[in-house]
Amino acid sequence: MDKIILQGDQVMFQPTMGAATLIGNLSMPINGSGKMTVTGKKVCLEGDEKKVQLPINYIQGPYSIPGMGILKITGLAGDQLSKKTVNNKALILKGSKFQAEMQVTAPAQQPTAAGPVPDGTPKYSGMGQFITSNIKCDVT
Asked: Which Pfam families does the annotation name (predicted)?
């Protein structure tokens, strides 16, 4: 049994994505698309995680001039989807940790005498988890 993720629950990304260190707020609320509600909040269904996009600053090793990226959930763990469905979609559960990615939108830069050198890595991978306020409703 695990807790169902509800609209407004937090998506929390880990502070490192591979070699990149993230700077700033690492969480945001998730929106639920389910018609079913728990304590007045919509349930989150499979696919709602794909709408999560969080702008973030980052640095990486010698690239100490911060760059920007967008954090996304790239895959849920096996224990983060219910066996029961609503409208043919699984409910999202708290579970363990999801796979995440930061897509670089403006590369961090390394200061040099000849001028800044941009980070050549287009994306970094990491993990994250859901933080839920749901204390009433479990599902398998």
From this structure: CIS_spike_tip
Q: What is the pLDDT of residues 15-31, one digit of tens each?
A: 999 999 999 999 999 99
Q: How large is the C-alpha radius of gyration of the chain?
A: 17
pLDDT-derived band at 134 (thresholds 50, 70, 90) equals confident
Contact call for residues 97 and 129 (beta carbons, < 8 A): yes
Please indicate, yes or no, whether the overall pTM of this predicted structure exceeds 0.90. yes
Measure the N-to-C terminal CA separation of the chain; round to a whole number of Å. Answer: 5
Token code pair at residue 102? 């930061």
Residue 136 has pLDDT above 70, yes or no: no
Task: Please give the pLDDT value at position 98.
Answer: 98
Nearest to 13 by CA among 55, 45, 62, 61: 55
How far is the C-alpha of 130 from the C-alpha of 5, rounded, in Å? 8
Closest CA to 69 of 57, 52, 61, 53: 57
For residue 62, the Cα-to-chain-centroid distance in whole angstroms is 26
Rounded distance, CA 46 to CA 58, Å? 29
